[in-house]
């Protein structure tokens, strides 16, 4: 496993890390036993960073991480998120009393005294522009409840606004072969300011595995079913904002990336990891085999300059106009 600095935070994290939305809920049926086995496999392979949120299974993924990392708290970094357990449009959710309560609840579930990276969970743009929440996070940092803080954003604009606050140490961003825009302006600016980049949805909710067909179905409690068109939250969080059928078709046009790289998923992760401004990718998982498949990306050959240009052009000509939602 290779490690990269998380911006100027002083933390060094595994370039392939993992997100725990899937094991918490909203991705269909899960098994706690399988989840804990998968977490153990990841840590044994050198993964030292996991991303979660207080709303993933109403805190269940935080509780699973507490069990999995017990006794290894000093070795394993955990990032969690807050605000979506309340009305995200209410300024009350971002005041000290609320954020402190969210933080204390996450600390109890995680079984920790301090959160390594505390992130605002996709708040409205006006909340970021107002900036009061960053003063609240500074206070929590001074109190020792959090080590560093960052923002999980939906759009490039939100990322650029967040960079205006000097103590932001990380941005969590949707970035993949179907969502290339953040790489143009946001990532270089973040890098200049010592802000780490965590890439979520690197496989576009599974589209970039190449395993789906137009006939593929998902369980009713899987967001790929209930949020397919943005019915429950930002449409960009599901299939990168692409209509499912279009995403399947575009995925098939990208099948060539697997040539000489074992499979599409590994190739899609390698494309992200080759960006020098990226700290880590945080794909999801529900079992050990998915963890192992994602870990294989560490050994996938890089893309040539010609291939990279072909992928840039593919995004501009074939993908960009079909993405829904703000980005």
| CATH architecture annotation | Alpha-Beta Barrel
Largest sheet, order of strands side by side?
Answer: 3-4-5-6-7-8-9-10
* Main sheet characteristics: 8 strands, parallel
For this structure, the CATH topology is TIM Barrel
How far apart the termini lie comes to 31 Å
GO molecular function, one term: oxidoreductase activity
InterPro entries: AKR, AKR2_Oxidoreductase, NAD(P)_OxRdtase_dom_sf, NADP_OxRdtase_dom
Organism: Paenibacillus sambharensis
Protein name: Aldo/keto reductase
Looking at this protein, list some descriptive labels.
327 residues; alpha/beta; TIM Barrel; 13 helices; 10 strands; globular
Would you write up a description of this structure?
By secondary structure, this protein is of the alpha/beta class. The protein has 13 helices and 10 strands. Strand 7, helix 7 and strand 8 (168-174) form a beta-alpha-beta unit. The longest helix has 15 residues, at 96-110.
Describe the SSE topology.
Layout (H helix, E strand, L loop, with lengths): L2 E3 L6 E3 L3 E2 L1 H4 L7 H13 L4 E3 L8 H10 L7 E6 L13 H15 L4 E7 L3 H6 L1 H11 L3 E7 L3 H7 L5 E7 L11 H7 L3 E5 L22 H4 L17 H10 L10 H10 L6 E2 L6 H8 L9 H15 L8
Parallel strand pairs: 3-4, 4-5, 5-6, 6-7, 7-8, 8-9, 9-10
Antiparallel strand pairs: 1-2
Helix pairs in contact: 2-3, 2-12
């Amino acid at each position: 496993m290779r490690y990269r600095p998380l911006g100027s935070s002083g933390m060094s994290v595994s370039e392939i890390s993992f997100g725990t939305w899937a094991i918490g809920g909203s991705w269909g049926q899960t098994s706690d036993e399988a989840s804990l086995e998968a977490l153990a496999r990841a840590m044994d392979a050198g993964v030292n960073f996991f991303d979660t949120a207080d709303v993933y299974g109403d805190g269940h993924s935080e509780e699973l991480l507490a069990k999995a990392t017990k006794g290894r708290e000093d070795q394993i970094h955990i990032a969690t998120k807050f605000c979506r357990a309340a009305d995200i449009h209410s300024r009350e959710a971002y005041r000290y009393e609320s954020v402190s309560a969210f933080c204390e609840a996450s600390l109890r579930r995680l079984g920790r005294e301090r959160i390594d990276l505390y992130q605002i969970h996709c708040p409205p743009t006006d909340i970021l522009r107002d900036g009061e929440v960053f003063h609240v996070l500074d206070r929590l940092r001074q109190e020792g409840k959090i080590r560093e803080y960052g923002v999980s954003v939906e759009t490039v604009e939100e990322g650029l606004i967040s960079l205006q606050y000097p103590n932001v140490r990380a941005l969590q961003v949707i970035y993949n072969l179907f969502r290339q825009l953040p790489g143009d302006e946001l990532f270089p600016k973040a890098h200049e300011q010592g802000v780490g980049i965590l890439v979520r949805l690197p496989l576009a909710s599974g589209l970039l595995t190449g395993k789906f067909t137009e006939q593929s179905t998902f369980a009713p409690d899987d967001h790929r079913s209930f949020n397919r068109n943005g019915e429950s939250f930002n449409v960009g969080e599901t299939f990168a904002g692409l209509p499912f059928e279009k995403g399947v078709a575009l995925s098939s046009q990208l099948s060539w990336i697997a040539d000489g790289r074992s499979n599409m998923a590994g190739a899609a992760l390698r494309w992200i990891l080759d960006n020098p401004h990226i700290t880590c990718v945080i794909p999801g998982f529900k079992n050990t085999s998915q963890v192992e498949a994602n870990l294989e990306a560490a050994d996938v050959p890089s893309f040539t300059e010609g291939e990279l240009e072909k992928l840039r052009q593919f995004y501009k000509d074939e993908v960009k106009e079909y993405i829904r939602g703000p980005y």
